[in-house]
């Protein structure tokens, strides 16, 4: 009573005092109630684990374990929480904690997840999914596996993924990657036709066409945390126009403390060709829940085969700026790639049954690329302005990619989630290299008439373009009557031939932006996701080819060529660099706008505790709108320079002013349904059926319809796929196994041909075909004893060309002698029946080591099944030593025993020939003919020093 009387008499001042005491009590009690959660994380062998991601929910705060394997959360109010611990290569742990004490100690032991089956994957699904519980066939390469691969390009890395066919024999670019026999349109210049190469969930490039494929704009380095690879399956409903599969390179995530890596690499390959490379990555918190990741690489590479120039040089820089809040994250990201690289052409061989190198070439070291020189070739688009294009084969392809984007992931409350990923990029690829390296005999009139000269018959002189010294002088007066040429001096050309090759100049440019927006709602046992994916690409493509006079020998030389008949003016068949028939072999100048709009709906339904049904629909609309210039050669007497004595500029192709326009849309509905039954915490089975579609790419317009109206749109290829698999994980043994069936229809095929009568290059009419492949994929890991891991994966398959016809143009544009060849029922080309990978890894204390065996089974080199590429094996090995807590060293050796395996086949060794021409009848009739093959890249060794801080 006295207390109340006190407040009544001192009303205002005492009320203030009472309120202050009350607030102090509340504040003090909240401090008392706040706690610290800390603990230690180790593996089953008792080793402390550094860098484990530890997330506390619902505070959405995260940290990583330090060098002692410890983590800590401070000032945690009383309540119920969940801890999630994740670490690549280990099983994820989810643990519930009730906070009431001032200090809570919670230690954890992480079990190794040998196949990442207990880890969450994000590729090919609209919501993150534990791999064991997903109804897709997925493989994961973690950072450790990535660093075990000699850095020879994106495709080379993917060879260790089961069921994935990879041809990386040409180098870092010009590669082929496909799965399950879905391969028919995956040509060498567009080898990623059916699959999506992605960075953090969005395609590297939206559009594809000849010499503009996504591998041009992708390099991996220390910024990559892991690769998720999905074969077929839900790619039909989760990827833009890529039903064959997804290869998603995922960048490193938030680093909760300042840390990073610097790696310096130096090695050699082939005949002492050197590689020097530096990689770097750094990640750090910036305060106020902001985080920064940045890194990249730079390299100088002489290449695996012999050239007189640096084969590759350049690099990239990438960054992520991430804001984390209690409901999700916002990420800004960017990439700058500025890179020069090249690609190898084939090597000549003889003996169809057991190929051996021909003409003094070597399967290990010969490249047959033009040597370095500087030329200026008239630009057919702007002859009146005197425009030229610089040409230097040492440049190869100069690829540039500047990309920026942002990725939002937010929990909106009430079981609603929003995710939006948007990216803008501007790309360019400038090719200055050679195409083809065929044998052209000096007795073949093509060797002279391809110069563009009217009648190059008589005495022809060949000089070394660099020194000016005469190499050979011949008389070809009798060749039109079938008589051989005569050498007039002691000098001669190697192999009595020149190389049938072109100075290949291309300008590719694209401005692209793409966006994927998803909105999901959890309703009872359903997680329903809807959204839209947008992609827009503005493309320009210019392609011009000139002939190059080059010696046909392992280290080619450029040749100056003149016609020097007695008592007549000297006619220059080539310029001083050896370039002839300026811009006269082919001309393409096109522009195209691509728009891809897709809407999708997916239901992930937990039918019961063990059953999950995944249903997806995707409606896609793709529009191609553009134009293609008509062209001819309207040079006046004397050619561009008006000089009758310079024949090399007489046939320049240039626009007529007419354009052929195209504006076609492709609309289709794709479907995918999968069911997963989780039998227990260690095993599950799944089944999936998908109906997908593949719309034509821009090469359909660019490569066809030469000087004719583009009055017909391409066919949409149909892809039906079924798969049934089992997944199992245990402490020392894990495996997945998948039976699959895939059918591809409406496959448009055409051949690249050369007409020797008018020296023109053309594509044959398109015919439509069907293929089918059935097979079994598997992936397994076994730890028989501590510190030793065995991995074995592969595929057994039966690929068939169920309906397959080829248009035979008989080597000329004239259609009078054309025919259609039927190869239905043959084995599908370039699809092996068996591929396997077997490896053994050792890790103890400071020492690590591995050895890998890759086996590639026999493959037919064409659908005619006329020529078969033999099986081959590759052995790779490596070892490492942890010098100190921060410094380590590794040695990597690729193709340890220098296998001479053949990865690809290009047909007969003649200018304009194709693989399809090497039928059984042709081979029987030409048993001594030489042909072109692509050997695998030879042995390479690398020393790496890695400093981690």
Automatic annotation (TrEMBL):
Compartments, record wording: Cell outer membrane
Membrane topology field: Multi-pass membrane protein
Coiled coil: none
Record-linked PROSITE patterns: TONB_DEPENDENT_REC_3
InterPro entries: Beta-barrel_TonB, Beta-barrel_TonB_sf, CarboxyPept-like_regulatory, Plug_dom, Plug_dom_sf, TonB-dep_rcpt-like
Molecular function via GO: siderophore uptake transmembrane transporter activity
Predominant cellular place of this UniProt entry's protein: membrane
Domain TonB-dependent receptor-like beta-barrel residues, every copy: 343-896
Keyword Ribosomal protein: no
UniProt key word Transmembrane helix: no
Domain TonB-dependent receptor plug stretches: 132-246
GO cellular component terms given for this protein: cell outer membrane
Family according to the record: Belongs to the TonB-dependent receptor family.
Name this protein carries in UniProt: TonB-dependent receptor
Species of origin: Aureibaculum algae
